[in-house]
Amino acid sequence: MARAPRTIVAPSLLAADFARLGEEARAVEAAGADWLHLDIMDGHFVPNISFGPVLLKGLRAHCRLPFDVHLMIEPVDPYIAAFADAGADHILLHPEAGPHLHRSLQLVRALGKRAGVVLNPATPIEAVAWVLDLVDIVLVMTVNPGFGGQQFLAAQLPKIAALRRMIEAGGRAITLAVDGGINPYTAAAARKAGANALVAGTAVFGATDYASAIGELRGAGPAG
Ligand code: DX5
Ligand code: ZN
Fold first, then answer.
1. Which of 127, 153, 169, 217 has minimal CB crowding within 10 Å?
2. Across-strand partners of 67?
């Protein structure tokens, strides 16, 4: 039997030591992370403020991992090019953050970046159904966006399974990711439901050994 591809792990820098971000990004790359997840919050779409494109640009010199940029800003369209220029590889948008999701995804693709759609806990899977041809990543929020360290919402598991079925029916390779409250236990449940990428802040940057933490999320045991 063919071996399933390894689960992608994307540490979220939101839980890193903000006085040492370059070092933290290098450390997770050395520890075997697949992507670096960057949470961009505007204090309006979500009730928190994080950082912007200038910080991404500075980090690019420290880390070769694909930058998985989760935009929690509204309106989002005017900022997409700035994040593309600053070094984003994946640009992920919430359908609620602009009037025309299809147009926003076209813009991301026109800039040569991988495009993602992020579904809040209350957002139905139908929000992405008719734009799947423009989508490389679907990210299911398993907490309300805005803060790290929240509790995983298990009610999202059937939604992950439904999205997995939708993706398989479409026949294109689309990464199905989860974000929020991911630890080795919830990661196992998310993987079982059909997720093949895991965003994790606290579970990686809150650990003393980043490589073991990443391996445990993949379900590969501490040596991962
Ligand atoms: C929340 C962010 C997450 C956050 C996850 O709005 O989208 O990426 O950093 O943090 P943990 O893994 O601690 O729940
Ligand atoms: Zn995120």
1. 169
2. 36
